[in-house]
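Weekly sync, protein design subgroup
Attendees: M.S., D.O., the rotation student, P.L. (late)

Item 1: inverse folding check
M.S. brought a backbone from last month's batch and wanted to see whether the design step gives back something sensible before we order anything. D.O. pointed out we never logged the input encoding, so this time it goes straight into the notes. Structure tokens as presented (173 positions):
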């Protein structure tokens, strides 16, 4: 149930984002290509090279008391809030590259479906991570978590560089 709440809320929010953003992309396609290319290349290189550039983000986190004391209602609220990944802290710059991809879709339905897929996969992955940490009693050492986060940032940077290459290919085509 926990994974479903995260995935469904993520799909609904990102689907709505897709339906809202795609019509804007029709009029701003050239600008979106340029800004998306610069964003993906800049943040991709910074994450691969380990240079920290402040990313778009929210500093809000789930209150610690919610993590310690569990109830079904709190789990539902937590899942609905965390699932989309928009209102809470997300340390990876790749998250904010996704709206560029959605805006470049050829029609509202494909943007809506892509948004639903992004939201469901983000919400499901976030829920699975939280459940894995909870089953371990959140006993991972700080050093192990730092190494994991550095590896994830590196992978995020590589994905952004692939995205920059795809946008460059689209622009040249």
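Designed sequence read out in the meeting:
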């Amino acid at each position: 149930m926990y994974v479903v709440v995260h995935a469904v809320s993520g799909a609904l929010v990102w689907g709505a984002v897709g339906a809202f953003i795609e019509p804007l992309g029709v009029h701003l396609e050239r600008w979106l290509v340029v800004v998306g290319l610069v964003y993906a290349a800049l943040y991709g290189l910074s994450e691969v090279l380990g240079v920290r550039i402040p990313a778009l983000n929210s500093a809000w986190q789930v209150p610690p008391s919610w993590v310690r004391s569990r109830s079904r209602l709190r789990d539902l609220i937590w899942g609905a809030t965390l699932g989309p990944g928009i209102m809470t802290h997300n340390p990876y710059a790749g998250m904010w590259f996704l709206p560029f991809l959605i805006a470049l879709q050829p029609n509202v339905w494909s943007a809506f479906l892509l948004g639903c897929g992004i939201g469901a996969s983000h919400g499901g992955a976030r829920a699975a991570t939280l459940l894995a940490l909870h089953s371990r009693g959140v006993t991972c050492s700080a050093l192990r978590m730092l190494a994991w986060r550095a590896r994830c940032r590196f992978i995020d940077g590589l994905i952004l560089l692939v995205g920059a290459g795809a946008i460059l290919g689209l622009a040249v085509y």
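Discussion: The chain has six helices and no strands. Residues 133 and 139 are 8 Å apart (CA to CA).
Action: P.L. to compare against the previous round before Friday.
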